[in-house]
Records
---
Amino acid sequence: MRRPRVLAFIDPWSPDPAELPAIQAHLRGLGAELGVVTKRGTWLVTPDDPPARLAEAPEADRSFEVADGATLVEALAAAGDAMRTPAPMTFTRREWALTSIAAGFSLALFGCKGKPHEDKPAPAPPPVVKAPMPPEYDIVLSVNGSDRKLKVEARVSLLDALRERLGLTGTKKGCDHGQCGACTVHFGERRIKSCMQLAVMSQGMKITTIEGLAQGDTLHPMQAAFVAHDGFQCGYCTPGQIMSAVAMLAEGHAKTDDEVREMMSGNLCRCGAYPNIIAAIQAARKGAA
Ligand code: FES
Ligand code: FES
């Protein structure tokens, strides 16, 4: 069975009796032969025989030469031309095929300076077109009993306006998609999820956040009930829970625990503090906090 043949492109190289045993040991392990291609010629090394020089590139034979800076495609074309040109050979047809192919590829490797596009200046990057800044609108929000002036883009939510423009970070951003209730504030008489409300559409409404619930140092009864009944663990959902619970009581709901669960179902607690939250709400409802 024919052995696999490994091609090596190296220059300069000539068989070295000192390294030959190691090379042949490797070839024996691989069960392969080694074709070594240099600028000056080609050798065939087998595991057991002395290296055989298959071809020598004659000084006068320039048919394989390619111009400096030739592309790989041009070098391959030159190699193909050379392969089609009969040349005086002193080796077998099989060896001639190996030598021609190897020589062609070695010319491609040794004769080319690089890819043509490396010589050309890189194309200029496309000009950066800056999108125009969206306009901002002057608005006034009535928050916790004060009129607050601010400039906002039309797309800014009430939640972002409260937290990032007015510094009222007690209102939390959980999902920003109206699903967790962490951002609950009072909007007039209603409780709303402030992430779902545009700031520019909130003018003229009385907005209350968790910061506006206590009276000075005196906690709102619902806040006190949450503290008394451990109605929180990490506390992230707690401002939204408290704002929602206060509004729920004002709505006249929460007569039973099931009613509390139903009416507070828009306020999620990742910590699962629900039993204590319900206990706190019922305590606040009964005025026993
Ligand atoms: S952040 Fe508004 S509902 Fe979750
Ligand atoms: S206390 Fe942690 S999410 Fe409710």
---
Amino acid sequence: MENKLYVTKSRLPDKEKFFRRLEEIFQTAWITNHGCHVRNLERSLCDYLDVDELLLCNNGTTALMLALQCAGLAGKKIALTPYTYVATLSAILWMGCTPVFVDVDPETMCLSPEKLRKCLQDSPDIAGVLPVHVYGLACDVEALDVICRENGTTLIYDAAQAFGCRYAGKGLLNYGDYSICSFHATKLFHTAEGGCVVSHSAAAHQALSRARAFGHEGDTHYCLGINAKMSELHAVMGLSLLPGTEEEIDRRKNVHTAYDALLTSVDLAFPRRSSKLDWNYAYYPVLLPDENSILRVQEALAAQDIYTRRYFYPALNTLPYLKAEWQVSCPVAENLASRALCLPLYGDLEEKQIVRIAASLGKALAGLSLGKE
Ligand SMILES: Cc1ncc(COP(=O)(O)O)c(C=O)c1O
């Protein structure tokens, strides 16, 4: 087990502090339905993420569904990036929406503003846009904002991977009409399962809050709702982990620096990072020359007990269960998806392990180029 290196490792809180908080729950027997730990975590996260309002949910997927529902987008056409985790698309499909895939920028790997502009001109009935800050690398938020305003289109960011990122001096979750984040166990900050939705008006906040809890308050029923509440047990995990998050980001940054230094002479490309972004260093994505290299490298690393992940593969526009008319060609995303790999990254990855991963990767790639000669 010790020798196996996975792409990520869930951060665990200090046991004593965690159990002390759980003890409080045992005293009150209040384990869900907006208890004090959920409210406490909501306040703490508003501070940490630099946002005015935030609602905790039971995961990031339901947070996305709530945003789509409360923005009045259920059943409508939504433009989205094909280069993301499948949950972005799943939320759209569960809301009965029609996905319209718009290709990504080859450098940022995020939704291309130019292609979005053209798509909105061609399909004026698109009611919402759902870009993703992929790997926490910010989309071109200024351009997307202008385009969506000009077209009267609602802008919802999937910021599932962008916890703690800041852009142009403010929390990245402030951009767009809504943003969601995931607090899944694999994320930099987590609540085992969980997520949140951020909105920017009292009316949106109230609508989301009601929809999160079945759509009613007491005996008054306001709207269609669902059960998307976070439990007190999950909130306790978040409260216990939040104070160590800055340190975790610093540790991940050190892992990045070490990888960067060790991989300078390896034939890899990296996504471009905006100079306005304070990144969370949550992932270490690399682009290999082609799909064959990925498959061979993954196999060679797995033989050394190093388990990488193809984040994100396949491009979602190619999923077999989509209607044929939704499977439009997105050559840039398809190409990136065939070449992208995430290396193991978490705060307590040790230097000797980083050296081992970088050496194995370099050797596997060198073996491939020798094979070509
Ligand atoms: C980009 C993206 N969107 C949505 C989700 C869904 O979040 P969750 O697993 O909390 O439902 C995730 C993570 O799993 C994700 O990476």
